[in-house]
Amino acid sequence: MFALLFFISFVLTINSHTYHKSKVVTSANFLSGGIYSIKSSITDYFDLHQQNMTLTEENNRLRTLLFNSGMMDSEMALDSMVLDSNYTFVTAQVINNSYSKTKNNLTLNRGSNDSLKIDMGVISPQGVVGIVVSLTKNYASVQSILNSNSQVVAKFKKSNHFGTLVWDGKQPNIVQLIEIPRLASVVLGDTIVTDGKSTIFPPGIMIGKVHNFDREEGDDYYDINIELFTDMTSVKHVYLVSQRDAPEIKELEKTVEDVEQ
Amino acid sequence: MLVNIVRFITLILVQVLLLNHVNFLGYINPYIYPLFILIFPLKGNKGLLIFLSFILGLTIDMFEDSGGVHAAASVFIAWIRPVVLKYSFGVSYKLNTLKISTAPLSKQIIYIIIMVFFHHMMLFSMEIFNVNHILLILKSTLFSGIFSTIIMVISILLFSRKNI
User: Is A115 at the interface with chain B, CB within 8 A?
Assistant: First the structure.
C-alpha cells in the first residue's frame, strides 16, 4: 500500500520536473479553480489601488505610442491593422500565484472556452510572466518564468545578441540570462526584451534590465543577472498572446527537423 | 468520523487559502495540513490512514501545482507514524490507554517535531530535487519546520478535545 502510493507520488513528482509533459494534477480544474476564484474575488480589493496605478501607467505608455505613431490620423490605417494583426491578445486575471518555491505556477481565470491554447505566452503590463502549460474549460495553469524548468529566448534590445532566460530559484526578482556570446557588449542597465524567434512571445516585449554580469577568464559566454520589470509577487492583470502564424511556422520547422533526422 | 472529515477539509482550506501565502522572509511557508495525519485516531486503520494521507497530499498538490511532492511526503509520514509514536510515547500507545491530547506536552512536542522534520525533509527534497541545492533543502526544512511546529502546537492547544 505504502509502496504503491509512494511510487505514484514519485512518478507525479518526476513528471512535474520535466518540462512540457502535460501535467496530471494541476490547479486548472473545477475544484481548485473554483475555490481560487472565490478567494480572489475577495482578496482582489486589497491591492486595487496598486493594480489601478499599474494599468494606468500602461495606458499612458500605449497612448503616447499611439499618438506619436500617427495611426490616429487615418481610418485606413486602423482598418488594415485589424485585418493584418498577426498577434491577438486575450485578457485574464491571476487567481493564484506563487513565487517562493523553485517551481512556481500561476492560475488564470480563463480557459479553452476563451480560446486559450497550450504554449500561449503570458505578459503583464510591465513585461513577461510565463507560458500556459495546461488548460481546462475555464481555467489555465501558467508556468511562471520563476520556475527552474522555464526557458525563454531573450535578447538585448540594442544589439540583437540572444540567449536563454532561466531561473536559479533564489530571488523572485532576479533571473539569469545565459549563452550570451563573449563578443556582445554588456553594460549594467541594458534592457532585455523577448526575441520573436520562439513563436510564443512577439518580439520586443520587455523583460528586465542587466543587474550584474560576470564572465570567467577563457569562458565564451557571459553569466548575466537580470532584474525583472514585472513584480512577480503582485501580478494580477495579464494578457495572453497568440500568433496567427504560429502553427504554420511550427509545422515548417518540424518538417525540416524530420528531414534532418 | 465526522470530526475527521471536517478536520480534513478545514486543514486543506486553511493551508491553501491562508498559509501558502505567508511567504515569510520571501520563502518560508508553514504547513499545517500534516496535523491531520499526526492526530488521526491511534486505533484507526493504518492502511486507511496511508490512503487518506495520499488524498490529502494530492489535494494540496493540485492547489499548488507541485506534481506529487505533498502526496509523497504525507504518505511517507503516515507510514512511519507508528515508529515515531512508539519512540515518543513509549510502547503504551498500542494499549488504547494513551490519548495524544492527554500525554505530557513535552512528549507531544517531541512527536510533532519529529513528524514535521521527516515531512518537510521529504517535501523539500522532492520539490527541489537537486543534490546541488542540498543547503537550500536543509535551510527550508529548518525554517519552515520551526514555523510549522509552532503553528501545530498552538492549534493543538487551542482546539484540543479530550477524545482525540
Answer: no
Residues 60-79, chain B, touching A (beta carbon < 8 A) = 61-69, 71-72, 75-76, 78-79
- CATH number of the domain encompassing residue A42: 2.40.10.340
* A243 touching B (Cβ < 8 Å): no
Which residues 6+ apart lie within 8 Å of A233 measured at CB?
Answer: A97, A99, A172, A173, B23
Q: Is A139 found in the same domain as A38?
A: yes
Reported as a pLDDT band with limits 50, 70 and 90, residue A83 is: very low
CB contact under 8 A, A5 and B136: no
* Residue-wise pLDDT tens digits, A126-175: 889 999 988 888 899 999 999 888 888 999 988 888 899 999 888 888 99
Residue type, A213: F
Is ipTM > 0.85 here?
Answer: no
Please report, for the domain that includes residue A161, its CATH number. Answer: 2.40.10.350
In the block, which residue shows the cell 481555467? A139
Q: How many domains does the structure of chain A reveal? A: 2
As a whole number of Å, the end-to-end CA separation of chain A is 44
Cβ contacts of B72 on chain A, cutoff 8 Å: 6, 9-10, 13
